[in-house]
Amino acid sequence: MVHGQEGRGRYKAFALGAAADWEVCYLSDDKPKAYTISLVERDLKDVAISDERSVPRRRPGVIVNITDLT
After folding, report:
1. Which of 11, 34, 50, 65 is deepest in the core (most CB within 10 A)?
2. Residue 45 phi/psi, 5° resolution?
3. How many Å apart are CA 24 and CA 8, to the nearest integer?
4. The whole model's pTM is what?
5. Where are the domains of the chain?
């Protein structure tokens, strides 16, 4: 399930490229944790979500990496 207003905001990344990775970092018990969500434009139903991992010294936030630029 895609979250957000109408679920379309994430798809705007595909105006720039064919693949996108969202690197999500958040605090859990005051310790930074992260995971990655990956989507490829040709199959938007196949969402890959990585395992959670510890990321010392990283600040919370989201980084979007767009590849296969058009």
Report:
1. 34
2. -85, -15
3. 18
4. 0.80
5. 9-69
